[in-house]
Predict the 3D structure of the following.
Amino acid sequence: MIGSLRLSRAQLEAVFDHARACKPEEACGILAGDRDGNVKRVFLMENAEHSSSFYVMDSREQFQVFDEMERDGLELAAIFHSHPHSPAFPSPKDRELAFYPDSVYLIISLMNNEPESHAFRIVEDQVSEIEIRVGET
């Protein structure tokens, strides 16, 4: 089980830029890496619901991403999405739709001038925050 999520400043900025570009809708995507939580690739995805209060990844796009990850020997490190107008904490809907208990959920809040991000593990509606380590890669 991943103890912390590790990604580069450039990877985190790509996620922030995607969130900003999708606002006022929630942005979403996948962070692929290794079993230790080291992010190797960022997949920016479309919110098929085009909603400002929840996200659903396009199933075809998600299948293609998982297929590419498998081909490249990558694991699901995190699923990310943004909260355009609320804190970076899992909403009741986020907890309800947390279908990957081994994954980290990275949430980006855009409610202030600068994006704020927090990472969580969500298992059976129980939320625990995990550390985000941003480094140079």
Notes: The chain has a mean pLDDT of 94. The two ends are 22 Å apart (CA to CA). The chain has three helices and seven strands. The first helix runs from residue 9 to 22.
